[in-house]
Amino acid sequence: MTPPAQHPVQHAVQHDTRHPAPPRKRRTAFVCRVHAPQGYETLPALLRSLALSNPAVCEDFLVLHAGAPPALDAARPLHPRLHSRPLDADLSGYDTLVELEAHWTLAPELAVQRTPAPAPPLADTDFRAAYFRLKGAKHPELTVHLGLPLLTERPSVDLARTVALALREQGRYEEAVEALSGVLERAGADQPRFHETLGSLLVAVSRYAEAETHLLLATASPEVAPKAFSQLARLAWLRGEEAAAREYAADGLDAEPVNRACRAYFTGEAGGGHPPEEPEHPSPGEQFAHAALYATGQENAGDKLLPEAVRLCVHPDSAPDTGPARWHPVPVHRLFDERALAEVNARRGLVVGGGGLFLPDTMPNGHSAWQWNIPDALLERITVPLAVFAVGYNVFDGQGVFEQDGAPRRARFRRSLATLTERAAFFGLRNHGSVEKVRELLPPHLREKVRYQPCPTTVFRKLLPDWSDPGSGERTDTVHINCAYDRATLRFGQGYGHFLAEMAKAVRALGGLAEVRCAPHTPADERFVHDLRREHGIALPVDPLYDRSNTEVRALFRRTKLVIGMRGHAGMIPFGCGTPILSLVSHPKLGYFLSDIDRPEWGISVHEPRLGALLAERAGALLADHAAAVADVHDRQELLWRLTRENLGALHRDFGPTAPAGAVPGPRLTAEAAPGPAARRPASATGV
Fold first, then answer.
1. What average pLDDT does this structure show over 472-494?
2. What is the Cα 573 distance to its own chain's centre?
């Protein structure tokens, strides 16, 4: 009879809370203390049992040793995060340590299964094959680590697709294409899922002609056809072939009438929609070209406001014109080709931004490795003044595609970034964190060109000539909450249940102070409302910002008393409207912004153990003295506006002599003097 399963010892690591570390995901590690050579002999069996019993679990595995570091050659092929440390190593960087013994065999849910007669150990190849025969979810890192060697040992089409999907999840598109190409001769025309996966990955590396061939093969299957046609429509749009995009989308709707992606390309909403019609006789020499992400339909509300904010900022006239008479749109995701180059060079200048364009995914391409789909050769041939304005480095913690030495995307991005910086007359990034990250990726002689330019959404009050702050009694007695769910694993790790439970506590507490409402920027953000009701019995009213105009979004943020947001622009836009904010920090950029305005206490990590209590406490303090909180927002905003005006003066000197009066530099405030991590709080300012 098998003895009952037991569980390893787990304990929390104690941290010094007097000087809290920057917000980050909670870190867990397995710890195995090895005191004798026999421990190293049984370690591979422990690692195999861990992967086979818990295939979706992949945390750091620390082998603690006394004396010389052990030889782990036999164990390293079995786990992607295997590290050796001395017994007295400092492990305070982890929040939870799970103690394991080298002779143990693990069962599901990390139970310890002690069998009287353990089975003979599997050979590495057999172990890897056994892992991929398991049903259910598998961790992408384990999938790649075990799958790539198995593809060499026992190649198959299904295995190649599984590994390629895991590589795609990690942003390793070139390697994913290579994995599929290795079994291409084995893949028949009757394997549509293989061809759809390969086709979409070929789009991601900008091998468009090959991508179209494989996607067309995938349309032969009724089950795969709708997705394949939507990919073909996207590919046609990327290449500037509007009619073909609409035809592919129509074919996709014939196959699946409710397919949202095909519907968006058929109506012209996807990819930023059709460029707005320009005046009948526009004068290109009086226009700026504007390379940006143009969101439409039910896409991200923050992305819809960004192009308008940039245009208002660059041209803050008494009657600002953000339309086609003054601006020529350049959708960043569309391939920048010879025609686009000629159109841009006929304009007065080119503005790139704002938003988090330095991002490896969303709409990946092989030309630049960031969001603007432009080859270096064409970027070098832009002859008009070029300004990079309030762009952000938008990479998540744990999404280190741009930081990994030797990664193809890192090399491609660095070349494109250097070309862009060399070409730019003005290069402004929206927070100091982005400035530091981008400078690290540039050659030394280009680093000083990168300066700090706040996102123009943070100074909306200064940009709109008809703006008026809400008067006494005009604000609604409401608190709006936004939560984001794109890249949920990168945001929450394994802590989503904890986050939701803590938010339930906060919502209940805040309900006694104001009406709590949800402000989703995308339809996917409404998951917060559904999960909160299902798991905790709390119902929240919803104000869907993705269905509202830019003016309506600003009006809501102008009137509400407090916005608690997880998206970057769920904080920056209400702040720009003069409304107090608190940030649910699941991405470094939120901390960057709060550091720039010297208000780090306005941010709370989604992984904070006391999230609910802290959020209720800080929100309550802001609401209790709301007039002072609003005055503090205005004070912080004034610093950003003064720096913006100075930057605009420099920008317009490069773009020509007809700079608008509103862009005359204000009081001297350099990037070094702008509010940052070391800035002091004014004596009159109040905080939480």
1. 92
2. 18
